[in-house]
Amino acid sequence: MASRPTLSLTRSHSLFPARGATQVTQTDARKIGALSLALLLLLFPLVATLANPYTVSVSTSSSTYTPGDTVTVNVKITPPDNVIIGWELYDPNGARKDFGQVTCNSGSCSFFFNTGSSWPTGTYKVVVAVSGTSDQGSTTFTLKAAPRHPHQHRHQPLSTISP
Amino acid sequence: MNKIALLILSSIILAALYTITTASTNTLYINVASANTLDETGAKKTTFTRGQLVLVNATLQFPSQYYAPPSLSFLYIVKFQDSNGVTFYYGIVKTSLEQGKAGSYVVGGKIPENAPLGTYKAVIYVWSNWPAYGFTAYSVPYEVTFTVSG
Q1: Structural domain tally of chain A?
Q2: pTM greater than 0.90 (yes/no)
Q3: Chain B closest CA to A51's CA: distance in Å?
Q4: Under an 8 A CB cutoff, do A49 and B18 touch?
Q5: Which residues of A touch B84 (CB under 8 A)?
Q6: A101 in B contact zone (CB under 8 Å)
Q7: Are residues A114 and A138 in the same domain?
Q8: A4-13, A27-36, B112-121: which range is least confident on average?
Q9: Is B5 a member of any domain?
Q10: Which residue from A49, A32, A81 is spatially nearest to B11, judged by alpha carbons?
Q11: Of B55, B44, B98, B104, which is closest to residue B78 (Cα–Cα)?
Q12: What is the ipTM of this complex?
């Protein structure tokens, strides 16, 4: 854009426009164009880094667990990068139950935690955040009491039942 | 030519900014030099019984780095896990360190009366804040183990 007025100015003000002068101007224009492109290429990742660069996708290996189970959490960072993540687990009452730190290589990682046998049942939330950014993602799972197996019920033996 | 010089200078500044920005998301400024468990009097101890207090003492170092801030404010967090790997307690200290300095920090927790016996783990984290509020990790997690016997 900036090179056009320069070229027309050279032509209109020169009675005998020298070929060399026009070539130099075009070379400068190409240089400016190339440098502008390089600048844009440099600017893009910087802006991308400063403004919410990562999308954090979080999922658990199952949607329902029973108290005492191990929960595995899978994390995907886009665009893929080597990042440190921090995670937190909140119980149905909003109390922090567990947390940790993991390194994700090439945007992918997983971690696990053990639920306590006396933890309250209900919906739990896992929050995952990328270190040094405000980027985070979350998922939920349900902690349900283990169903009582019919054979666990105490039955009175038939022989002891009086008619 | 001034425009070209300006463009080159801008590119260099942007490249430097990008490098610093990228480095700051993954740079772990603080080292956990050492950590151990203590009893309630401050004496080193690795075997405890139910109901006793366990103190986790760690020495943190903030080595001089030209790209790091002169001082870091952080949370020293200790998470306690029982022999089943279940987190049952955590404690924090909010503090700060200057470049080139080291500091010792202690967090204590009581072993529950109904706690399972076996090998317990205390994990140390150095974070700017909790992840849900937007955080930066300042160190690699550091683990110490202790035994709870009957």
Answers
A1: 2
A2: no
A3: 11
A4: yes
A5: 114, 116
A6: yes
A7: yes
A8: A4-13
A9: no
A10: A32
A11: B55
A12: 0.86
